[in-house]
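Task 17 of the worksheet. Students: predict the tertiary structure of the chain below and write it out as structure tokens. Keep your answer in the requested format; marks are given for formatting as well as content.
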Amino acid sequence: MTPRNLTIDIAKGIGIIFVVLGHNWLTEHHKGELWRVLYSFHMPLFFFLAGVVMKVPQNFYAMLRARAHALLKPFFVILLLLGVVKLAIAVAQGTFEPRFFGYFWGVAYATGNTLVWTPMWFLPHLFLASVACHLVLRATTRLTHAWLWVTLSGVALFALGAANLGMFWHPEPVDWRFMGIAGLPGLPWSADLLPVTMAFMLVGCVLAPQVKRLRWNPWAGGAATLLFALLHIVFNDSIDLNLRVMGYPLVVVPQAALGIYGVLQLSALLASWSAAAGPLAYLGRGSLFILIFHDTLQRKLIAFLASLSESMVANSVLALVISLAVPLLVWAIAQRVKLLSFLLLPPPPARQAI
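Model answer:
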């Protein structure tokens, strides 16, 4: 098995902290500057890193099985189990209504607007994007200057996706309802986002050798941070893929690129500091479980802590820390309990954090 790249694991760890922070009261309560900064690069970062670590095995079906185990299995196991529990409680309390089955249609459709645990839209979509990128890479691998064709494919896809981002997204009330939702919540598994997310993944594939060899460069890291800050001072655009929101593409793309590069430079710097490298890399390896559990946990924690303390800042910081720690505990338990391992994790030979 190929050894893990510490810088990439640290980048995933930093990225998942940003994801949890992006759903925290500190960021969400008025969606100010911190929200705009985080939402200009944190989700592109994850798709880019997914491209960096992507392999193109000869056996397409082996890739499908591996991706399904890693992404679709925990998605369906957790959300279907949650639905069964909700259904059982509703029946026991005498509050069951036939429309409750819309929950299961929402799980099958799997966009942010159809899921009770909104952030989990990322899992089936990443599966789709991984399969689509795999096909692009297989189609171009024998071409002369394959990296150029892959890059051009990414550019063309992003242009297509940016121009049509809201085509299938109509959350405002209309005269008809879809699965109980007043509007059209994107295509199934957020397939309408594929041109944008594939673009970041394909660029990650092309730049994978450079990313894996990346070393800390204070001048490059400092310049990227300065340019990133200047773009926010002047334009301050952001990207919310789940809500199909994107600023001006000629601003959004450099902001995302500079944010991603800044995180990679910071990760390369921290890789030589064991006190930070170990915990951050562990967060990165367990990022899938943090993504799954953090949102509901964090919101309930903040609501509970608000009943004990009026300091929302302190409550939010504590909730953030717990929302990072508890999913890692669940991940550790799942690795040791055979039933949970079978239900939530890939088979051992293919076991990788997302």
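Marker's comment: The chain has a mean pLDDT of 90. The chain is about 70% helix and 0% strand.
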